[in-house]
Amino acid sequence: MPSYIDIIGEWEELSSSPVTVTDTWLVYPGILDGNLLKLRFSTDWAAWNHPTGYRSFAWLRTCYENANTNEKLDLVTPARRIYPKQEEMLIQIASIPETDNVPGLLKRLELRRIRQRYPTPKLSSGELLNYDSSSVITLDWQISIDYLK
Questions:
Q1: 3 state SS for the chain
Q2: Per-residue model confidence (pLDDT) at position 124
Q3: What dihedral do alpha carbons 9, 91, 144, 46 form, nearest 10°?
Q4: What is the per-residue pLDDT across 131-149, written as a single tens digit (0 to 9) for each?
Q5: Cis ω for the linkage preceding 119 (within 30 of 0)
Q6: Do the beta carbons of residue 81 and residue 58 sit within 8 Å?
Q7: Which of 2, 33, 36, 93 has the most CB atoms within 10 Å of its CB?
């Protein structure tokens, strides 16, 4: 994957294009080789700032897999919430210390979107918009993740 340098250091892109976060756990493309991440979000920011449906956040966690078999292992770190925003975000992610420098162990990221039910969007008249579960609209968004080498 491409890399670039900024004032902090050299960053490696995990994916060549942004990934849409879904309601099920999604393994983010690319192998992670660092713990400091730079997150960039993209969406329709006008609709995000004036919602006609639910916004969402995501759970982000580290998972591990066997490099020889590509089998996902039952090793995951605690998930943390990330909220889409227009500015780049730097976060330090957790890792399992016993897994550092273990040959044949790959570290990846997993994401899952969670609908944020509050604040409930308002109509232009100022009344709260009333949703039932069959008419829920959730604004889609994408994420790009880089790590510090």
A1: CCEEECCCCEEEECCCCCEECCCCCEECCCCECCCEEEEEEECCHHHHHCCCCEEEEEEEEEEEEECCCCCEEEEECCCEEECCCCCCEEEECCCCHHHCCCCCEEEEEEEEEEEECCCCCECCCCCECCCCHHHCCECCCEEEEEEEC
A2: 64
A3: -120
A4: 555 455 778 899 999 999 9
A5: yes
A6: yes
A7: 93
Domains and CATH numbers, the chain: 3-118+137-148 (2.60.120)
Residues in the chain: 149
The residue written with tokens 């969007």 in the block is: 121
Instruction: Enter the tokens of residue 97.
Output: 């210390």
User: 124-142: buried (b, 16+ CB within 10 Å) or exposed (e) per residue?
Assistant: eeeeeeeeeeeeeeebebe
| 112, 23 contact by CB (below 8 A) | yes
Is 5:144 a contact under the CB 8 Å cutoff? Answer: no
pTM score: 0.83
